Amino acid sequence: MIGRQTVSGSAQYTQNTTRGEGVVPSIQRILVVDDSLLERRIISASLRRWGYDVQEAQNAQVALEMCRQTNPDLILSDWMMPGMSGPEFCKVFRTMSRERYGYFILLTSKSDATEVAHGLNAGADDFLTKPVNADELQARIVAGDRILRMERELSDKNRVISETLARLQDVYDKIDADLMQARKIQQSLVPRLEQNFGPSRVSLLLKPCGHIGGDLVGMFSPSRNRVGFYNIDVSGHGITSAMMTARLGSYLSGTHIEQNIAVERRFDRAYALKEPSEVAAQLNARLNADTVIEEYFTIAYAVADLSTGRVRLVQAGHPHPLLLRKDGGSEFVGEGGVPIGLLPNAEFTQIELQMEIGDRLLLYSDGLTECLDKNGEMLGESGFLDLVNRTRSASGREFLDDLFWHLTDRMHSQDGMADDVSATLFEYLGPAP
Questions:
Q1: Would you give the DSSP letter of residue 161?
Q2: Which residues partner with 270 through β-bridges?
Q3: Which is the CATH superfamily of the domain at 188-427?
Q4: Given 109, 185, 204, 335, which residue has the most CB atoms within 10 angstroms?
């Protein structure tokens, strides 16, 4: 039982601990539940002297109704009560919906380990042995206040985190919607994935590793029996690379030939294709003239004369194009070269190929050759050639689709591609009528 001298001697200690200057205590409202009026009044009187808002209940049923109305911060409940015991009361209390955690102390004369375990399983946080000692009661309240303060600080932080995550989700959703629209805009740079030029044909494959990518493919034909086609890979990934492909798409437009830098007007009557090496040099000059652009790109660009099968090709840092002969032979062609945009006065070497009817020329990005297989090894040119041979019987877009399927089947990661994949296939089948 709490004595008067002990109570008054503890008041200053309580103020210095749970109600010190600048500290808002987590425990302010306490509910005392005991079927003994005398016990309730003694404990309640002490708590009020310590500055707490105290309520009393003579049994668990009344206490539950008071909990629904006032949400006490701490409950001091007797173990043995008529009707519903303290542990039973605690178990029901824990099922109630509350904004904040409520601390629960059982008052009991029981000290058996089994009984204590029973109280803990019911949801009690602490125990006090009757008769209650004032110093011990105050120490348990201080400990409970410290725990509740940590719990509520954690709860507040979790709330802030949840609110922040919700805001981030909103931002992500907006960015995702913008990227989806950007993907549509980027896809519009390649309006046709296949086009016939007489019996000959150019087919395109473009598979970005994300919403948008840094690869670009295209074709254009300013006159009969002349066709240009290319495969571009911009450094890096994401929005910056995609913006660069949009810029390059305008430079090499197949829709607006008059704006295409690879095309020139002759005799005010017709358009003709410039030499590939000249186009590479012009692109390089434009990129180096813009000092704010740090990106560069690789390109394989070819011009085909459908009347003769002669192909002129420039390779600027791009993987070596693959020439597939009608008789089943194959060879990598090109002389490498430096990427576009790295050196202001770079020179680009042009080569010539003679294609026979039935031959095919494949331009592709390093997303194919540098893909990791299931053993974690890079495919390289030999692994890439193996994929090509598996799809060799197909033609046009079916050839490219089969090639991409075999690539993903052999891919190391099932989470998606690590790099953009693109390819341009030129099939020479003779001149246009």
A1: H
A2: 266
A3: PPM-type phosphatase domain (3.60.40.10)
A4: 204
Overall pTM > 0.70: no
The 10s digit of each residue's pLDDT in 368-426 is 998 888 888 888 999 999 999 999 999 999 999 999 999 988 876 655 667 889 999 99
> By C-alpha distance, which of 281, 274, 275 is closest to 348?
281
CB atoms within 10 A of CB 376: 8
Do 394 and 362 meet the contact criterion of CB atoms below 8 Å apart?
no
pLDDT digits (tens, 9 = 90+) for 324-362: 999 999 999 998 899 999 888 899 999 999 999 999 999
Please state, in angstroms and as integers, the Cα–Cα distance from residue 310 to each residue in 37, 56, 305, following that order: 108, 100, 5
- Rounded Cα distance between 191 and 395, Å, is 20
Amino acid at 431: P
Query: Exposed/middle/buried for 261, CB within 10 Å: 0-12, 13-18, 19+?
Result: middle
Using CB atoms within 10 A of its CB, is residue 422 exposed (0-12), middle (13-18) or buried (19+)?
A: buried
The superfamily (CATH) of domain 4-159 is Response regulator (3.40.50.2300)
> Of 32-46, 50-64, 208-222, where does mean pLDDT reach its minimum?
208-222
The alpha helices in 191-307, defined as continuous H runs, are 238-251, 276-289
What is the rounded average pLDDT of the residues 55-84?
Answer: 93
